[in-house]
Amino acid sequence: MRHIYLDNAATTPMVAPVIKTMTETMSNVFGNASSTHFHGRQARAILDDSRHLIARSINAKKDDEIVFTSGGTESDNTAIIETALARQSEGKHLVTTAIEHEAVLKSMKYLESLGFEVTYLPVDQRGLIRLTDLKNALRPDTILVSVMTGNNEVGSRMPIHEIGELVEQTTAWFHTDAVQAYGLIDLDVQADKIDLLSTSAHKLNGPKFLGFLYRSEKVKIPSLLKGGDQELKRRAGTENIPAIAGFAKAVELVNVDEKKIRQKKYYEFKQQIVKGLQMAGIEFEVNGEIIKNNLQHVINIWFKGCKRDALLTNLDLNGISASAGSACTAGSVEPSHVLTAMYGANSPRIEESLRFSFGVENTVEDIDYLIAQLTKIIKKSRGNS
Amino acid sequence: MKDNSQIRVVVGMSGGVDSSVVAYLLKKQGYDVVGVFMKNWDDTNDSGVCTATEDYEDVAKVANKIGVPYYSVNFEKEYWDGVFKYFLDEYQNGRTPNPDVMCNKEVKFKAFLDYAMKLDADYIAMGHYAQVRRDTEGHVHLLRGADANKDQTYFLSQLSQEQLDKAMFPIGNLEKPEVRRIAEEAGLATAKKKDSTGVCFIGERNFSKFLNEFLPAKSGKMKTFAGEIKGEHYGLMNYTIGQRKGLGIGGDGQSNDPWFVVGKDLSTNTLYVGQGYHNEHLYADSLDGSKISFIAPIEERGLEFHCTAKFRYRQKDTGVTVFLNEDYTKVRVEFDEPVRAITPGQEVVFYDGAECLGSATIDCAYQKEKVLQYV
Question: Which of B105, B143, B130, B150 has its CA nearest to residue B22?
């Protein structure tokens, strides 16, 4: 059977140049980058080169502003929890949005349990916050504003530049979870006045269990993990040099032109799906909106009257891997907090929507196959009921 | 003939040893097997742990081991509406419901069956100890499982032809030790897993405590039929006919015999107790039932026939005569010999030899034409 992967917002396959870089590094370099001997220096050189390349990719002022972590979750946890703990004498209020990733939301919940106060900004049906809401939420005791760059379920892109300018006028720091956006759109931490930025390598065809946290010079927070003095005391634990080299390679591959090419290609996939389903006479609505400005790798569709678990299972049995939000530990799909925030807890969309997310390996033929399978499954399920 | 690989069987995998072996056997026979775990109850506790997790983990381990895809489907709403509401209603009416019978009727052989059909299933398969046989006229008959100790036809007795038509019970011809042996030989993670006990949504919790979370308990008097007050009960729903445990009365009556629940009166909120396991109030010779369901057509037996019956799960059969009304909405069942602790809300299940004919829900028990005060 043909197997098509359309869940790239969950993770992406590693691409050949990344695998080559990693296996070569693994074969040749094993030293601990903190060691002062030959083997240590060998590792350190790769670490420094990778850090430099990655710092350039987001226009960081200095290479040292990049701290390698185990991924998006650790980056988010560090940015939020350590900022709150470090700044609690200045204030105990944080602002975020209702549609952040769990790594952000659960960090916030944890802080609430410690006595911090968190404002969750609502979103509209496009998946966007209103700047006036943010303005109204900011207080003298606000120490951190955490707003994602782009959403992982509907692809909406927050007004990061405007948020950065707003927050800059306060004493709060600005954190953005760029896990979905990094590698797809240009990010400029200086222009956008970003103090903290989280990424993950495996969302852009790099290795899993790796990411970085950008922390601007002014941000002074300790390591979330307690241990050695690696990463200039900012992140304890021996660096995974082959994975870091692979991450740098993955970042190098998505240069300015490549990002444009991908955004365009995925935007066209969305158009193809919408047209294809319309032609097939399928009743559906896109959750959020399809506009040029959004993250194009994600499309979220409401298939009216079709339960998502049956759709997903049928797609999988027909060789298509897609998603409907996060699974609970007993395997069934949890109601999406993103769709709930956009459409309300009683919206049928929550039970009847699927997310498809594209990657560099997807082709027009894959999308045609998806449309054909969806059409078959939905027509049959509507015929039955 | 279709090759087995062209026949899709959706297996209800619970994470127990029985359904694990079902999936294993069908896969070995070359069927296109799809495993589906049903999440019927949201029991996420305060620390956010949902206890269905362990069972689903076992489904994953077993399905991966035998090489079949597996999924999870959420039937919490269907279970709540179809089983749990009924369960509470019955308790509220002083009766003792059987949620497992209802779960088969409303969830496993309805919501799950529909779901499997959406997945292009040709059959569904379950780990019940029961067997099906198709006759020459195309009717499905339900037969007891080969393991007399484990036979689960009691719980399947309310199913219709349509519900059983697509059903396979691949371990129905096996005995439990054999099932465990197969699981062990195949290296299935569930080979030594303990059998689940009690009602699925209550699990290992204290039953009364659970029930009282949903139905406020109203305490009242505990009396003998002679009118002697023997103490307080803590809510009629917490007691079932014939129960001995938890009454807290010593043998201070006419004899040293232990005390048993022998009756209930909902209108006065009174629990009747009496002494001796064989207390006369516990013995009935006939009953009235409703919600009658026969698995295969029964017309040729007429409205009155003799067969055997069980009045609760794992009881020995008793000879009975069945008297049906014209439209099969009411049944009177007369027993060949008196039966202890007939419980309103439970099923009376009819058998003819190995065949399970169907069942009715017990409404009322009689002793020599006199109604026994059981609700």
Answer: B130
Question: What is the reported pLDDT for A142?
Answer: 98
CB contact under 8 A, B55 and A330: yes
Residues of B in contact with A328 (CB under 8 A): 39, 50
Which chain A residues are Cβ-neighbours of B49 within 8 angstroms?
Answer: 329
CATH for the B281-371 domain, from 2.60.40.10, 2.40.30.10, 3.40.720.10, 3.40.50.620 = 2.40.30.10
- The pTM score is 0.91
User: Which tens digit of pLDDT belongs to each residue from B14-72?
Assistant: 999 999 999 999 999 999 999 999 998 877 665 566 668 889 999 999 999 999 999 99
Q: Is A112 on the interface with B (CB under 8 A)?
A: no
Using a CB–CB cutoff of 8 Å, tell me whether B118 touches chain A: yes
Fold classified for A16-253: Aspartate Aminotransferase; domain 2 (3.40.640)
Pairing mode, strands A173-177 and A196-200: parallel
DSSP state of B204: T
Going by C-alpha positions, the residue among A127, A111, A254 that lies closest to residue A119 is A111
B200 is catalytic: yes
% pLDDT > 70, chain A: 99
Question: Is the Cα torsion angle A321, A324, A328, A331 positive or negative in sign?
Answer: negative
> Does A113 contact B at CB distance below 8 Å?
no
Q: What is the CATH number of domain B4-185?
A: 3.40.50.620
What is the value of ipTM here, to two decimals?
Answer: 0.87
Query: How far is Cα A193 from Cα A167, in angstroms, rounded to an integer?
Result: 8
Q: Per-domain residue ranges for chain A?
A: 4-12+256-384, 16-253
- State how far the Cα of B362 lies from the Cα of A64, in Å rounded to an integer: 77
Residue B103 falls in the annotated catalytic set: yes
Residue B56 and residue A329: Cβ atoms within 8 Å?
Answer: yes
Q: How far is CA A355 from CA A303, A347, B154, in A?
A: 11, 16, 43
What average pLDDT score do residues A243-266 get? Answer: 98
Question: Is A48 near chain B, with CB under 8 Å?
Answer: no
**Which CATH number is B217-277 given?**
2.30.30.280
How far apart are the CA of B56 and the nearest CA of chain A, in angstroms?
A: 5
Cβ-Cβ contacts under 8 Å for A341 (sequence gap 6 or more): A98, A99, A122, A123
Residue B222 · residue B234 · CB < 8 Å: no
Q: For residue A285, list its beta bridge partners.
A: A302
* % helix, strand, coil for chain A, step of 5: 45, 15, 40
